[in-house]
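Example record

One chain of 232 residues, shown exactly as stored in the release files.
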Amino acid sequence: MSINPVEFNKKWKGPVIRTGIITVIIPMLMCFLPNLYLYLAYGVFPDFQTAMKAWGMIATIYGAFYVVEPISYYPILGLTGTYISFLSGNISNLRVPCSAVAQQAVGAESGTPEGEIASTLGLCGSVITNLFFVSLAAVVGATLLNLLPVTLQNAFRLYTIPAIFGAMLGQFGSKIPVLIIFALVIPFIMLYIGPIVGLSFLAVPWFVIVVSIFGTIGVARVFYTKGIIKGH
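Predicted structure tokens for this chain:
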């Protein structure tokens, strides 16, 4: 049964935007509470120049994600899922896979109202489950990990994230396999070929991320307009 887009926008997206703005802005403001406490209790507060210098250092490392992540994750997460994910964190390694699996489980297409609802339900379940296990891991996780052999400890630390991203690549790449080639070749050229030919700036991590994501999107767009690939 299809959902009427007009009714969906009115009954779903309107309330989601209003609630999402509130639930994102309030935690953002609460992040400044420790600073406010230090100022009121001890009179400690950085001057503007120091604060901007610290922000600049962080923006240099993570600034690209301000643009890349919302754009690249939105098609899968949807509107509601974007609010939930950027509030709860663990987006690439947890929220995106959970959203994709939830939509796949019910046969919903990403970007549709049905996909939006399925994504939201999957993400809500992931947040509750994640909260429970993170709390549990905070209490006993380190102790249990230390009981394992060193080889297994190193395996968990080194290969968990690559395994998640590899699974995501296989899951989404299987829909349009030709794009996997460009998704892998573009960063490979930038990381390894660039420095060899004297273009070391190509290997800067944030630049690799931006070019790889938007480069692959650009290739997909060209292929789609030429009819080489179909919409999924």
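Notes: The chain has one domain: 5-174.
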